[in-house]
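Recall the central idea of this unit: under ordinary conditions, the amino acid sequence of a chain determines the structure it adopts. In this exercise we apply that idea directly, starting from the sequence alone.
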Amino acid sequence: LALGPAQQEQRLSAFLETLSDGQIEYLKSMQQQGGSSQGQGCIFCALAEGRVQTSVIYQDEKIFACLDRNPANIGHFIVFTREHISNSLYMDDELFSYLLASSNKLLRKMLEVVGATSGNILVSDGQDAGQKTDHFIVHCIPRFKDDGISITWKTKQLENPQNIVDAFRGVTLYKKKVISPSLVDSKKINYDDLRIP
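Accordingly, the structure predicted from this sequence is:
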């Protein structure tokens, strides 16, 4: 059925109302980046498709994990979605949760394999945050005592933290009721007052 421009716009508006803010931003970013043609020259898409050789440690229908070619430590690996997604800020919540949970499980196994005592799961969203590729990746780095890796920053003084706190007042991430910290007197917390019936 061919729809006229007015009907198309009406259907599109109705569809967009069903999407979360993150999903809308993701669609906008894909449109700006050229949509489905994006990823054709991406090394990570090529790795996931088997067009480039790598040391694969895990793969399934959603994610791909392989050893990093320039590791910070023995066992350093990366995990990324098979779908070309350039930034996790606009990734579907379910896929992002799956990606991080899988990264955590794979790192736990890698710690056993290489005998590491700790690990880092590093996420960088955007160039200013250190993201160096157009395909979002998660770095998983096994850590050893005195391994020489330093992930540090210079602390900054917050001039008015209350402005930031106020900006988040009323934000709802999920449809569950959240207890506001300002409504709870930490000295008089009674378990029965906070219990969900």
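The longest helix spans residues 93-114.
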